[in-house]
Amino acid sequence: MFAPAATEAEERRDAVGRELPHFPDPAPLAGHGPARIIAMCNQKGGVGKTTTTINLGAALAEYGRRVLLVDFDPQGAASVGVGVNPHELELSVYNLIMERTVQATDVIRETTIENLDVLPANIDLSAAEVQLVGEVARESVLARALRPVLDRYDVILVDCQPSLGLLTVNALTAAHGVLIPLECEFFALRGVALLVETIEKVRDRLNPGLEIDGILPTMYDSRTLHSREVVARVHEAFGSTLLHTVIGRTVKFPDASVAAEPITAYAPNHPGAVAYRQLARELVARGDAA
Ligand SMILES: Nc1ncnc2c1ncn2[C@@H]1O[C@H](COP(=O)(O)OP(=O)(O)OP(=O)(O)O)[C@@H](O)[C@H]1O
Ligand SMILES: [Mg+2]
After folding, report:
1. pLDDT digits over 190-224, tens only?
2. What is the number of the ligand 1 atom nearest to the C-alpha of 45?
3. d(CA 257, CA 54)
4. For 59-92, how does the pLDDT look when each residue is reduced to its tens digit (9 = 90+)?
């Protein structure tokens, strides 16, 4: 017996069976800016925040968007992932937020990817959490530091560290939207309520325009019932906040980080690269990115 060929209709369903809309290639932009700032946020570690920051950024850059990645994690993984050595930095995002004389343009670096710049971080940033506590308007330091470069970019992606501390609150205060990468694992939803509560607090007290742009399932394995169950539960709880795009689990992502390249450059035709391009198109179609 031959297995029946998948029909067109079946192919155009997402992981929870919703009809998958067509996300067109984004139209070329006539000019650039002002940027929409998106914070990549989940206090759970290792869920794909940095991978999403780098690869969504690279995909948007391929579509002609001017993109700035802000590494807001002292581990510096986003910086390393686009080829910047965090140990050799004279200036990093730490200097930008702690020293009034340092401008974003002093710290921003171009990457090897056209249209993709990075504001790098290193371990120095770990001191900022404590040092910021005594600052005036300590929650809006990042927002203020980014303001002068908003006009140069279409999208600014902030890679948060796995915590809900003051640095993350700064990212949420600076942001227009939050993207929540969620690993398709058993305890994935644990902690999401607290994250949503934090986002709502920041919206009420500091940043009234803040929106949750979407929840992005990562490390999805369609062969396991388990992955499908996690995504179904997210859909039950969050409805259309669950994005259509899911990112599959593949070693190509760690491989690409070892090569210090986005997957879109390292393995341009790999399903992982295709998925991040779809995410870029989905966000543009939703109005969450230029
Ligand atoms: N879709 C995926 N499939 C397989 N591995 C992945 C995938 N996405 C990310 N990874 C790998 O999982 C690890 C954690 O990913 P990543 O660093 O993006 O998570 P994170 O949320 O930024 O972590 P942290 O909270 O420590 O900052 C990395 O080794 C990364 O290469
Ligand atoms: Mg990270």
Report:
1. 889 999 999 999 999 999 999 999 999 999 998 98
2. 25
3. 10
4. 999 999 999 999 999 999 999 999 999 989 999 9
Instruction: Show the domains of the chain with their CATH numbers.
Output: 37-286 (3.40.50.300)
Answer yes or no: is the C-beta of 218 below 6 A from any ligand 1 atom.
Answer: yes
Q: Give the distance (Å) from ligand 2 centre to CA of residue 120.
A: 13
Q: How far is the CA of 161 from the centre of ligand 2 (A)?
A: 6
Are 57 and 155 in contact by the 8 Å Cβ rule? The answer is yes
Closest ligand 1 atom to Cα of 42: 21
Single pTM value for the model: 0.96
3-state secondary structure of 114: coil
- Closest ligand 1 atom to the C-alpha of 254? 31
Which of 138, 121, 132 shows the shortest CA–CA distance to 173? 138
Q: Is 254 near ligand 1, meaning CB less than 6 Å away?
A: yes
> What burial class does residue 22 get, using C-beta atoms within 10 Å of its C-beta: 0-12 exposed, 13-18 middle, 19+ buried?
exposed
